[in-house]
Amino acid sequence: MTRFHVLDSFRGICAISVVVFHIHAVNALTEWNFFRNAYLFVPFFFSLSAFVLSHKYYSKTFDSIELKSMLTNRMFRLWPLHITMLLVFLMLEGGKLFAESRGISFTYPAFAGKNSTDEILPNLFLLQSWLSSFSDLSYNYPSWSISVEMGLYLLLATILYTFNTLRSYAFAFIAILTYILLINRIDHLRMHAFIGLFCFSMGALTYRIYDKIKHISINHQLMTGLEILCVALIIFIITLDIGNKYIASTLVFCLTILVFSFEGGVTSRLLKLSPFTYLGKISYSIYMTHAALIFCTTAVFKILSKVTNTSFLEVHPLINAGSNIKVSFFNLVSTPLNNGLVLLLLLTVIAISHVTYRFIEQPGQKLGRALTT
After folding, report:
1. Are the beta carbons of 260 and 223 closer than 8 angstroms?
2. Quick one: how many helices (H) and strands (E) in the chain?
3. Spatial distance between the Cα atoms of 367 and 354, rounded to a whole number of angstroms
4. pLDDT (tens digit, 9 = 90+) per residue, 293-315?
């Protein structure tokens, strides 16, 4: 079966962009308009997942055995690392509690607010983004999208199992319905869940378009032009100040997925280079581990400030940001130093992700495959 290596590379680049978005270091590249809007890349993950899974399962006769196989593989793809990082954050909250007993204060008290003990079970079962009574940005806050993703897998499995020739109509209906709800801001569920439903449905429909035209041979120069156009459109839509950006960006992302699925241009050739494909391979680990590293880095500077009675860190509350803080490490305004720290954090995230991919993700995937054979 065809593997879309270029789309994997896109996943890695988007994951790195989300990490930069969450760092919030002042006087650094993290404050560029592009990275301040990089949260929009999360819908790209939803659309790409739908495209890739449709490629794998759409044409199959989806019986109960195939249903069990898909859901088991998907669960063991996501859950091992998710549970690991949830345990890490519970330990970090315990560390925060100890630090508070020593007079070191944090933006939020330990095991309180969005990280209260009431949030543990919804996080454990990936329900936090679907139940309005819980915080979808609790503990390992990037996992809100994993909660949405798991629900979308169940939706995909239901549609593939229930429908046959009407699968595309089902996704089209969901896309239209969620588009209307998003436009009118009707929030009977969670807005994040609606966004996921819209992006995922559009990704599945994009695959149907690809499946109809994949036999077409397109000139290399034309493909290069289309790829460059898509990259320009992504930069434009990410930085543009408009309403309903989730909808507009999803349409651009789906066009990009369709164009780059052919892997026919110069940009695709570049994205097939091993550094990019490796980032794609460990992208899930990058996405899931970076919040803990940012928390630990912030905590270290808080402790240094307390111990040395020197302000190494300034904390500024933010609105609508997963990390809820903007930080000025070392309390310096030096752009090179802050950018250097950002680069160090990125390299550390990649190193940690290499380890978690090898020792958590891969064994989890292997176990999932073993249970379905």
Report:
1. no
2. 15, 2
3. 19
4. 988 888 787 777 777 776 666 65
